[in-house]
Amino acid sequence: IDYRAATAEELADAGETFDVILNMEVVEHVADVDLFVAKCGQMVRPGGIMFVATINRTLKALGLAIIGAEYVLRWLPRGTHQFGKLVRPDELEKALGAAGLTVIDRTGVIYHPLADRWQRSKDMDVNYMVLAEKASV
Fold this sequence. Notes:
With 137 residues, the protein is of the alpha+beta class. It has four helices and five strands.
């Protein structure tokens, strides 16, 4: 494993490419989602995949992921997430398409605090994941 402190934009501009790119709870924190996804898309090799996990911009997500997790339960520092920066699935899928990637799977993810486990779900109102691939040459 080669660990480097660099932004996705820096790596893309340097011509780096990868078979798999994981954007786990990242896109809701970047300044420009479309630019970030485009740069990540540049780095996906033909036949490669990008996996994105993020939080939907819904009132349900505001209540559970921001107010509940940050202010009530204090699982995260207050202010970790800004509601306006959360990304709806249609926005993410549009950005992935513009980056030359095709969505091949999507799923919601629900946390069960009493069991301390995550479960895939059809409910994408709060946490969700998207898998996209770049066509082979």
